[in-house]
Request: fold
Amino acid sequence: MNTRRFSGLLSKTPLLKTFVATVLMAASVAASAADRTTIPPRKDYASAAAALQRFIEHELQDKQLPAISVSLVDGNEIVWARGFGFADPERKIPATADTVYRIGSVSKLFTDIGIMQMVEQGQIDLDAPVQTYLPDFKPANQFSKPITLRQLMSHRSGLLREPGVGHYFDPTEPTLADTVRSINGYPLLYEPETRVKYSNAGIAVVGYTLEYMNRQPFAKYLKQAVLQPLGLQSSAFEPEPAITDRLAKAYMWTYTGKVFEAPTFQLGMAPAGSMYSTVTDLGRFVIALLNGGRGLNGPILKADTLNKMWAPQFAQGGSRNIGIGFILGNIDGHRVVGHGGAIYGFATEVELMPEEKLGAVAVTTMDAANGVSVRIANEALRLMLAVKAGKPLPAIETTQAIPADVVHKLAGRYGEGNSALDLIERNGGLYAMRVRGGYELRLRQLGDVLVVDDRIGYGTKISVVDGGIKVGDEVLKRTSPAKSTPIPEEWKGLLGEYGWDHDVLFILEREGRLISLIEWFEYQSLEQVSKDVFLYPARGLYDNEKFVFTRDAEGTATQVQVGGVVFKRRTPKDWRRDP
Reply:
């Protein structure tokens, strides 16, 4: 979920043998847009929709994605919405605009809106200590500054990423109350307001504030207070059968090529990432945001409140612009607000341009494929801007495979120390990965440069220069990998697999360093603090969190605790592609 957010520079099986790039359009059009499986492009957007369709079809094939659904918004109208590929590849059920998806951290926006409604009503002060509303919320705050809802909603509270129970890995489906209670006693990782620290645990607290103060289960309260006024008939924070009967199948994958169906358990931290929705419902959400908070069945917020949510919070000391819930950015100089989502097998992006009254939604059903959903939403907005300005449609970049001789020639180590980058030759392709940590990202050719073009991300360009490569403005000379250095003997008992089948934590060794591979895709080098305690770097998914190992009498670790999450040692499995 975003619950997961991927950034920085950072293969497939018979289970998903065949994906087609197009599906049959629905033959009938119901009276209400909510009942339509496809909304044809409005006449003025026909050429933009055709261009985006060609790109989506390319992405389905190139990235081997089961399904993609999109919706585009202009002002008060969804001007195009449809699905591509298959919501159920095995049964050949097409994806449509009415297919239900899990939207991950986009859920956070709805939770935050619920709080802002109570702010408007004078029931909540964003800058009061959270204990004003939740007296039993007691993380170990070693700083003089108290935690507030504003900090939690802008990821500036300093709380750990995941709670002790009900976290992203936990399939036991505990209550929200138990999930929030499990945060008590954990120390803050940063002083409140000093640094962005993305925290799912924090938004669980925000949602529990709604539950506790309104004396009503969170999912039911949010439906009545936010989803129904918006007119979202196919959205919910709990698995209602009428909605989940249309849920798309989603898939996990590994760097080694194995693909398997994504788990569907409910998160204990539901406010942070458990919402179900469709691209048409999300399109209606965007319409409400673009029109001053007016939903289909009534207002959800005042326009002034939305503007406050779209303003940077605690701008000092942070590298990302985050409002109250919303991620803030720009495309070609136009202000963009929105959020992404990543939860087991689903990758979602919701973006809107408030001044231009434009919005775009994209969802796909392959884990961590946020690079695709983000790019589709970005390109959609660029195309729509051109239409509104009466300008020619911008071309969408498409890359090509790198010739085999170039792949072989470029594979190797570049740079030294923290800047070191490996270009890895595998299965005829070329992949880039920082040696000290990050993601293993596929490279493709774009004109005379290489570009990251992967499920996880897109856009970082690499050019070949004398004696090395240039990554952005950084020149890295070709070097040789460091001589293999044995890890300390006491570390050997830590190596192995931990956690659950659906999400394994790997502890590995590389060039004398201890490396974690977490949530299937993020490698990071761990720094030793004491014999059994290691520290994640101040970046990435688990920014500045401790890895605390527990050993048996023989010195073999039986578990490792990462922040609030306990990963038990497991019997290793073969994670290579299926035979």
Q: What stands out?
A: Residues 527 and 535 are 5 Å apart (CA to CA). The domain at 489-570 is CATH 2.40.128.50 (Lipocalin). Residues 1-8, 10-35 have pLDDT under 50 and may be disordered.
